């Protein structure tokens, strides 16, 4: 407990703390470092530590003023905090502000700390009691408690005016210094408490030395339960608690005995007045309070008062879960760019948790790299400068939903907008190399023949925006060479050649014919020059001849003579240049140059080929989808730009989003691509870029929106319902896994046994789960399968494991019956009297005995929790349809809360909300005439147990305490599997777990601290978990400073030879069905287990699975065959001996069904045919069952 704050009073504002308080502080300072002083442990009411300074408990003097100060740190809060001062649990002191209670609030902008003060002017006895200050800010809250005591001048009794909610006081400190009083007459304290008001309980407990207030209240409550008397004013009171969602309305209803009696409603002690929010209703004896549009402020205690009688309840307002209304979008960016992930939620001010690859991103751990922004319902995660390390999956979580998006960061690529070109210059002229790149911030270096160029008065290098220039003035022959520009930080280089044109003048007295000196190095055959569309093309052709020849450029039959424009000719004395600015597709073709003079003529031809980026691909469409993938195809572009297509780049985006995500960084060569990592049920669009040696095309048109959806699972329980001579009726159940795409229908296929040519039986999809296949070949053995179809395609097929024979029916039909050939054979000739017989043969269905196919999970006890649903589907067989009856504990099932539904092939038992009364043995009986079959199903409905009873400290020695208790009265309808024991120091009142899963109803708690007094509580545990309440010890364990001498502990020898406590049992198994045999063994040290079959060790045979669980040994035989029968034995061996048990395992043959036909003498009988031949002999052949009747004529 913090040091009490001294009250600020007029005049003398410092009141000295009582002497016994100082002594307690001295004792607290002497505590060991690992022990908390009383009141210094963590407060149970604290939800988050936002208090900087908390008000402390004080002892005030009557008539003086006292002030309490609380400070709150708002640096981590998104909104201004709200402070409430409460007395007890519910009384809000804000409504009592006036001369007696004054409140003050201040704010420090530098430290961002709010300071709240509450002053009590002229303290009176009624101000004593427990107080609480509670601060809330959006989704954070914190609270702390403190005490105000007003001592009397002659006694230390605390005032009882604080009410029953005044809080717990530490009476042990006051009892230490209480003066010894003379012996008093013995009185029954419990009789006094039963007659007293709840507000006087503390005063009476203090007066008679009762320190365990919690135990006192429990005992008093138990005594009052016995003597509860019926309320005279209320016929039905309020429930203990109500729950309502935020924004909904709730009605609180009571029934009163006197319809004319006045009634009042209170909220946290304040009377409620009728309004639009609070509506009072009175119908007969019922009185209803309706609260409309409940908010968090309506989460309070409510009270209904009729005369002097009251009834109480609490209303809890639940906030609805926050859902995500706008999902995250995938982002693809380059290094250094800013990235924003935006999500929109359903409520303003909601908490959104951001995670990257499973690691939470917070303001503390993210640093300056990540920023979190809130704008109403929008929440934004900002990455200032993205790096390749930021690549990954990002998640946004709320308490009602989640969204994810993928971030892909790639290295920034530098794009060359204009490359440098070769130059041919004369001496003393200026040479300028110029290039342009996409990034203005990129710097670079110039090299000549691999050596870096240094700036000088003649050589200058400039960088303006995206343009880089190298200028060489007064060109000299030494300047000729290869020049290269290399951008810093990129594996890229741009090269060009500087040709020095040296002019030599020779005097030739005679004429020279013209000559074209054309350099076509680096081109292909026929002098083909390839130019990228949009770039500049310049032909510099050197010409010689005397006199100076005339130059003529031609494209095809057209002469090019323009000196200006996009396509022009620049002519000098010995040089002719053909220039094309911004080459276009129409500039492609054959170009001829002709030079003439009086001495002759010369010609040259050039082919110019213009190449460009390709056209975008066409016909982009999604051909198939999966659970998180989709397959997309497209057609190559109609124009490849004059350069072969290298491959394609793909992008996708969610419908409604403007952000495209790149799917591949390397060029993809095929025209079919499978996109993965998609979200099922979300609409996507895709587009494709074509890539050739020049660059990337424009994007294609967006594909039609598609949605990744997984195909359904295979249909289940495919069975044959009926077979005729040319048809077969099939039945099945829908797949267990359907998915978001649903089911459009089913496809039924069949084929002959031994063939793989499946034939589809239905032209259109079948909606129902049954179908009759027609026009089947008679006498053939056919296989059938069923396939579910949805938007994602076909599911895996469900196929019959055995073929179905399509049987032929001989003879003619009469009505609904068929007449067949009948033959009788006998080994002897019976003597028959002369008579005529009429045989009528009727074809009937093969009778099928009723049989229950009990699922494996129902062969053992079914355990479920209270309130859960129970839905049992049990298939059966039998023809004609059997009569199904359900029993519970041997009595016909008539419980209305338990429903049953029966079809032709199965029956369903369902319970919408299980109760413990539903536990028991349920018997299913199926019957056809006098043949029946039954199966038992055991259901156990369980819940958490009650608390243990009679928890008591039986012995204390040294630093140990022994506890004992009794099992709980309510075990939750299942066995108690253990107990959890906790201890608490009476000073700190904090509970710590000592043991978990303790099986015995007793334990010893060790390592207790000397000088402390401990209480203990015990929780019981079953398969549902720990009990909600705990059994608290009636007495305490006081660890005295002088310990007793502990006798030495003699450890018990637990060694024993192996002994089987449960033997192996003989059993019969069915071929093909996995079986298990079990036994139990004990022994110490742990024995070695050896399984044997016919005295041969089984070893590591994969057909057998051997398990040992806490001494329970199990041998599983997987799908036993004819050779798995015999004698199985289990041997346990340790150092002290061995033991062995054995059993006999037999295999039962499978049951087969026989059908019969009667044959007689090879005579073909028609209906009503007279038989006059004597019977010679008869026999029975197994083909078809018939019913034969005859009569004498």
From TrEMBL:
Function: Thick filament-associated protein located in the crossbridge region of vertebrate striated muscle a bands. In vitro it binds MHC, F-actin and native thin filaments, and modifies the activity of actin-activated myosin ATPase. It may modulate muscle contraction or may play a more structural role.
All residue ranges annotated as the Fibronectin type-III domain in the record: 616-712, 714-809, 947-1043
Region: Disordered, residue numbers: 1-46
Keyword RNA-binding attached: no
SMART domains (alphabetical): FN3, IG, IGc2
Similarity-based family: Belongs to the immunoglobulin superfamily. MyBP family.
Protein name: Myosin-binding protein C, fast-type
GO cellular component, as recorded: M band; myosin filament
PANTHER family for the chain: MYOSIN-BINDING PROTEIN C, FAST-TYPE (PTHR13817:SF17), TITIN (PTHR13817)
Molecular function (Gene Ontology), one example: actin binding
GO BP term, example: cell adhesion
Organism from which the protein derives: Amphiprion ocellaris (Clown anemonefish)
Lineage: Eukaryota, Metazoa, Chordata, Craniata, Vertebrata
Keywords: Actin-binding, Cell adhesion, Immunoglobulin domain, Muscle protein, Phosphoprotein, Repeat, Thick filament
Domain named Ig-like: residues: 42-149, 244-323, 412-484, 514-607, 850-938, 1058-1146
Keyword match Cell wall biogenesis/degradation: no
């Amino acid at each position: 407990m913090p040091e009490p704050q001294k009250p600020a009073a007029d005049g003398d504002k410092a009141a000295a703390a009582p002497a016994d308080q100082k002594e307690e502080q001295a004792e607290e300072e002497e505590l060991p470092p690992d022990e908390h002083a009383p009141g210094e442990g963590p407060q149970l009411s604290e939800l988050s530590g936002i208090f900087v300074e908390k008000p402390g408990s004080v002892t005030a003097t009557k008539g003086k003023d006292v002030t309490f100060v609380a400070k709150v740190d708002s640096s981590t809060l998104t909104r201004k905090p709200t402070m409430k001062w409460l007395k007890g649990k519910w009384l809000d002191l804000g409504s009592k502000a006036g001369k007696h209670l004054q409140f003050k609030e201040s704010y420090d902008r530098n430290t961002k700390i709010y300071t709240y003060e509450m002053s009590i002017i002229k303290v009176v006895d009624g101000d004593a009691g427990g107080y609480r200050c509670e601060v809330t800010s959006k989704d954070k809250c914190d609270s702390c408690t403190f005490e105000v005591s007003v001592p009397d001048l002659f006694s230390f009794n605390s005032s009882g005016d604080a009410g029953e909610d005044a809080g717990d006081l530490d009476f042990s400190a006051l009892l230490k210094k209480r003066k010894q009083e003379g012996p008093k007459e013995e009185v029954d304290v419990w009789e006094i408490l039963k007659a007293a008001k709840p507000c006087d309980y503390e005063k009476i407990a203090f007066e008679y030395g009762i320190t365990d207030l919690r135990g006192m209240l429990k005992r008093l409550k138990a005594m009052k339960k016995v003597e509860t008397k019926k309320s005279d004013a209320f016929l039905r009171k309020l429930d203990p608690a109500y729950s309502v969602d935020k924004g909904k309305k709730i009605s609180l209803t009571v029934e009163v005995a006197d319809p004319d009696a006045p009634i009042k409603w209170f909220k946290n002690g304040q009377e409620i007045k009728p309004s639009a929010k609070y509506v009072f209703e009175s119908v007969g004896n019922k009185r209803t309070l309706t609260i409309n549009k409940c908010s968090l402020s309506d989460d309070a205690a409510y009270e209904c008062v009729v005369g002097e009688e009251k009834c109480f309840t609490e209303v809890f307002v639940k906030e609805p879960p926050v859902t995500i209304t706008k999902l995250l979008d995938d982002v693809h960016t380059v290094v250094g760019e800013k990235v924003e992930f935006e999500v929109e939620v359903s409520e303003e001010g909601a908490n959104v948790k951001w995670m990257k690859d499973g690691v939470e991103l917070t303001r503390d751990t993210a640093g300056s790299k990540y920023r979190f922004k809130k704008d109403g319902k929008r929440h934004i995660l900002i990455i200032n400068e993205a790096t390749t390390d930021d690549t990954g999956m990002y998640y946004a979580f709320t308490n009602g939903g989640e969204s994810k998006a993928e971030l892909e960061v790639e290295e920034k690529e530098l794009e060359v907008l204009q490359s440098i070109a070769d130059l041919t210059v004369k001496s003393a002229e200026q040479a300028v190399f110029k290039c342009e790149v996409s990034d203005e911030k990129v710097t670079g270096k110039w090299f000549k023949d691999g050596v870096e160029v240094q700036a000088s008065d003649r050589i200058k290098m400039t960088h303006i925006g995206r343009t880089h220039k190298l200028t060489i003035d007064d060109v000299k022959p030494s300047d000729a060479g290869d020049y290269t520009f290399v951008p810093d930080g990129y594996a890229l280089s741009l090269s060009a050649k500087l040709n020095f044109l040296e002019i030599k003048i020779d005097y030739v007295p005679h004429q020279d014919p013209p000559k074209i000196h054309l350099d076509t190095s680096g081109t292909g055959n026929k002098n083909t020059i390839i130019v990228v569309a949009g770039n500049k093309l310049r032909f510099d052709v050197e010409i010689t001849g005397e006199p100076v020849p005339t130059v003529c450029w031609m494209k095809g039959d057209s002469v090019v003579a323009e000196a200006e424009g996009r396509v022009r000719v620049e002519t000098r004395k010995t040089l002719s240049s053909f220039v094309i600015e911004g080459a276009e597709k129409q500039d492609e073709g054959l170009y001829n140059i002709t030079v003439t003079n009086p001495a002759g003529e010369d010609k040259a031809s050039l082919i110019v080929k213009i190449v460009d980026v390709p056209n975008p691909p066409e016909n982009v469409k999604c051909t198939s989808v999966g659970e998180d993938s989709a397959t997309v195809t497209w057609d190559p572009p109609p124009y490849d730009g004059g350069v072969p297509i290298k491959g394609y780049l793909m992008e996708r985006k969610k419908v409604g989003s403007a952000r495209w995500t790149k799917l591949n960084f390397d060029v993809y060569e095929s025209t079919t691509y499978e996109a993965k990592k998609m979200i099922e049920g979300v609409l996507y669009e895709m587009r494709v870029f074509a890539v050739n040696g020049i660059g990337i095309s424009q994007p294609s048109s967006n594909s039609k929106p598609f949605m990744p959806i997984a195909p359904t699972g295979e249909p289940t329980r495919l069975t044959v319902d009926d077979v005729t001579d040319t048809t077969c009726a099939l039945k099945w159940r829908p797949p267990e896994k359907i998915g978001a795409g649903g089911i459009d229908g089913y496809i039924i296929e069949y084929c002959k046994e031994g063939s793989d040519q499946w034939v589809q039986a239905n032209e259109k999809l079948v909606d129902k789960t049954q179908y009759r296949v027609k026009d089947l070949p008679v006498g053939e053995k056919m296989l059938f399968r069923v396939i579910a179809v949805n938007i994602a395609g076909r599911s895996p097929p469900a196929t019959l494991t055995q073929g179905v024979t399509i049987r032929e029916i001989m003879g003619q039909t009469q009505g609904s019956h068929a007449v067949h050939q009948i033959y009788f054979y006998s080994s002897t000739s019976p003597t028959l009297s002369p008579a005529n017989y009429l045989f009528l043969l009727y074809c009937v269905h093969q009778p099928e005995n009723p049989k229950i196919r009990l699922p494996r999970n129902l062969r053992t006890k079914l355990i479920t929790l209270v309130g859960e649903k129970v839905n049992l589907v049990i298939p059966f067989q039998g023809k004609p349809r059997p009569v199904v009856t359900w029993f519970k504990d041997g009595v016909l099932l008539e419980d209305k809360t338990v429903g049953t539904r029966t079809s032709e092939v199965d029956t369903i038992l369902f319970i919408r909300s299980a109760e413990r009364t539903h536990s028991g043995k349920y018997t299913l009986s199926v019957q056809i005439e006098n043949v029946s079959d039954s199966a038992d199903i055991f259901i156990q409905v369980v819940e958490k147990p009650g608390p243990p009873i009679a928890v008591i400290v039986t012995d204390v020695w040294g630093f140990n305490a022994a506890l004992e208790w009794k099992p709980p009265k309510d075990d939750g309808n299942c066995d108690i599997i253990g107990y959890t024991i906790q201890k608490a120091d009476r000073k700190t009142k904090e509970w710590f777990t000592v043991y978990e899963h303790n099986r015995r109803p007793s334990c010893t708690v060790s390592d207790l601290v000397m000088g402390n007094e401990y209480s203990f509580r015990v929780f019981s545990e079953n398969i549902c978990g720990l009990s909600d309440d705990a059994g608290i010890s009636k007495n305490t364990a006081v660890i005295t400073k002088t310990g007793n001498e502990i006798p030495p502990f003699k450890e018990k020898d637990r060694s024993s030879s192996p002994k089987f406590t449960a033997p192996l049992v003989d059993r019969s198994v069915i071929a093909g069905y996995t079986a298990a045999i079990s036994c139990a063994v004990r022994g110490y040290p742990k024995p070695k287990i050896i399984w044997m079959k016919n005295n041969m060790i089984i070893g590591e045979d994969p057909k057998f699975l051997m398990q040992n669980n806490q001494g329970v040994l199990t041998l599983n035989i997987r799908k036993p065959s004819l050779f798995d029968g015999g004698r199985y034995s289990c041997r346990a061996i340790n150092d002290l001996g061995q033991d062995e048990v054995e059993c006999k395992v037999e295999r039962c043959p499978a049951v087969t069904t026989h059908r019969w036909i009667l044959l007689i003498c090879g005579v073909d009988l028609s209906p009503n045919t007279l038989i006059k031949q004597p019977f010679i002999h008869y026999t029975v052949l197994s083909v078809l069952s018939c019913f034969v009747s005859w009569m004498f004529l």
